[in-house]
Design a protein that fits this description.
Elements (H helix, E strand, L loop, with lengths): L1 H12 L3 H14 L5 H20 L8 H12 L1
Length: 76
């Protein structure tokens, strides 16, 4: 299987850039969209990672006022 994959990759790399881009897009799209439960799982994992960082004192909190001030300034 590995040799077949290497042959396919070598052939794909001989394509012109536009065709390689189209092939790459088609391959990515063939992987499909994550399901809602997969997306939820990713968000839960991220929230747990951030909570763990907070608990270990690795990150600082920011006040709501500071966050809103910075957001407003970024929109100006």
């Amino acid at each position: 299987m590995a040799a077949k994959l290497e042959d396919l990759e070598a052939e794909a790399l001989r394509l012109d850039p536009d065709d390689r881009a189209a092939l790459a897009q088609a391959l990515i799209e063939s992987l499909g969209e994550p399901s809602p439960s997969e997306i939820l799982g990713l968000w839960v994992a991220e929230a747990e990672r951030r909570d763990d960082e907070w608990e270990r004192g690795e990150v600082e909190g920011r006040s709501l006022e500071r966050v809103l001030r910075r957001a407003a300034a970024a929109l100006e």
